[in-house]
Fold this protein.
Amino acid sequence: MTRSLKIVDADAHILEPADCFTSRLPSRFADIAPRVERSPRNGVSHWRIGSNWIWPVGYFGSAGFHEYPPVSPMEYEDVQTSTYDAHERLKRMDDYGLDVQLLYPNIVGFQAPLLVAEGHEFALACTQAYNDFAFEWSSADPKRLIPIVMLPYWDRDACVTEMERCVGRGAKGVLFANKFERVGLPSFTDPYWDPVYSTAQELGVPVNYHVGFSSFEASEVLNEDAIASKRADADRARPSRALWSCSLLMQQADVIGQLLISELCDRFPRLNIVSVETGFGHMPFYLECLDWHWKALGNKSRDLLPSEYFARQVHGTFWFERGTLPLLSEYPNNFMFSTDYPHSTGGAPGPASPGVPASQYVAEAFAGVDPELAEKAIWGNASRLYHLD
């Protein structure tokens, strides 16, 4: 039954190619543009923004890699070409049984504070350059490759303008953030951001929060020594790394809780919100717990309980769970399958991964799940939410 359905991957990433920005930015930004250079300290090709060295080009392309994290690939030659080549991505999707992928940025896309440090005009130009690249990349098959475009969160008016520009080009979702306090901005639920949410509601596009949000300042940028240390201490670090990974993902529940106890959903009842990489199994408990304490602590009643706001307009993603999936009946319209390709937490098979191809995972994990629930989680919810053909 399950393979007769289409499979939509609601969270995957593009590993930006070296010319992603340099080929698209105005020449006046040539000296500070995000670019790939070989580090004189370790001989590895790193991304560089202004004078700041950040991650190696292959650092988040762990799919299929032969070593377990925290050891990661470094060069483009170390990663699958499908991480950065659209035509190869389509072949990889065929191999894994994926029909559609929703595509997020990767290395540079999550380092916006470093862009802002070089000036708002430059940062906006980089955002537009990335979005233009994402549309071009996805043109290899625009029905199967769906870019989630970046918003320049440091400029509220520019967020609205860029959202309108990208939706005019066919964008089906926007990437926002939910930890703005880290960079001195109001909380993501504050009415300060209402023009952004209002525009998204009016245009009918989901606002997506990803688990990652960098607060790096120029003086705090990851350096080559930190990467070398991770490689040297890999075996010792792996047990605590497992705990850290789980804790990081569980924190998304708290983000959703902040959203649900705020008045954001009251102000925008038709807005769809997606918290990517939530996982699923712990969420029914979390929402029941939140409802119970909402009432037990005498909070003033609103139109709905927190869990009811969630059911109406908030969504999450999962990618490797099996035993918890029958509980999808609690929130049948709110969760979507994903792979997080090509990140180490994703479902891509390889010599250093417990992952299996998406089609195999779906066939095995949903074998005992109600067919209607399976259909929604595998493709129906994402298709409805993002208006997919």
